[in-house]
Known about the structure:
Layout: H1 7-14, H2 16-22, H3 27-46, H4 51-55, H5 65-84, H6 95-99, H7 123-143, H8 146-179, E1 203-206, E2 209-213, E3 229-233, E4 236-239, H9 245-253, H10 265-274, E5 282-285, E6 288-293, E7 296-299, H11 311-320, H12 328-336, E8 348-354, E9 380-383, E10 400-402, E11 411-412, E12 416-418
Parallel strand pairs: 8-11
Antiparallel strand pairs: 1-4, 2-3, 4-12, 5-6, 6-7, 8-9, 9-10
Helix pairs in contact: 1-2, 2-8, 3-7, 3-8, 5-7, 5-8
Amino acid sequence: MIVTTPPSAAAALSAASPSLLSESGSLAQRLVDAYLAVRGETERRTAPLSPEDQLIQSMPDASPAKWHRAHTTWFFEQFLLGEHVDGYKPFHPDYAYLFNSYYVSAGPRHARHQRGHLTRPGADEVTAYRRHVDTKVVKFFETAGEAKLRQLVPLIEVGLNHEQQHQELMFTDILHAFAQNPIPPAYDPAWRFPASKRGPAEWLTLNEGIHTVGHADDGFHFDNERPAHRALVGPVKLARNLVTNAEWSAFMTDGGYSTATLWLMDGFATVSNEGWQAPGHWREIDGEWMMMTLGGLQPIDPAAPVCHVSYYEADAFARWAGKHLPTEMEWEVAARAGQLNDAYGIVWQWTRSSYSPYPGYRAIEGALGEYNGKFMVNQFVLRGSSLATPAGHSRVTYRNFFYPHHRWQFTGLRLADYA
Length: 419
């Protein structure tokens, strides 16, 4: 089965600032424990992969597992060791160029779409790089002193949560790569889609009201989750359940993928150009639909939530059903009330909210200010979390975001309707 962060590490990261700064005991030891837990999870997720698996880049939007491992290591080397350890020398003079992602302020970068061309350094060399940086970081935590560590906790938390994001991407990216293989391979033959907590087909009604949305406490959050602000929500109804494969199959049978009037113009152009007839990773074999999963090719479970659909597809399905997608504000208010089944842990859920800054948003200073703010255009917000999200990484204010044609992620939907 898929390994996840141990519960102790998850608890340490679910509300990272109060936990790391306020719990009794040594801050240095808490940092060491949280750091090693997250770093270890990356290696556990990589363990089933061969060196060849770790090299492949199946499309420009994906990255090789080897690159994810090295990039998350570069993050700590660049922003923690390089800026806060006197006399630190990088493990290798070329790694900053190879493994920087999009931090323009941090220097030049290797082209994203060419990451799969990097046969060197090999997977073993990346392992050596990770071990070197881990040793240096742990030593820094143990010797820097309480005052300095307290100042650096926000940076360390970003690094840990950043690596957790890449742990999820490692699963989505290797699944996309395996889905291109006609064999087809399995990441973990024992893997099964997580059980849904689906209840009766009910709707949650949100009466018109002004609600506080966004992150308001001292727990860890990314800058795009703030500031907390007041928003008018409702009247609206949200489906308590996620849309299922059976419901999606009805959409397909009714000509959903060929009915232009259901689609946004760009969406139907994408469907036509890409030849979409079903969600991502679905294959029709001898008249039966199968789905490529982390456990290999498996029959479609009609009761399971539909997965690997783009915003364009989600929007078209909602229109076919006579409904629409919820806004991210509506989703957050409903989720805070605990009224949404499978809000977390199965699929990210598309909203019809464009990814844009909250009122009063300010990016943090320096290179880390490039983390979120510069992507706030032409994308849509997803809420919740997925089966690939590491334990302790979900929260009600989390704002994931992707372009409307993306569907290699574990993405699904729930419907909304006018109250």
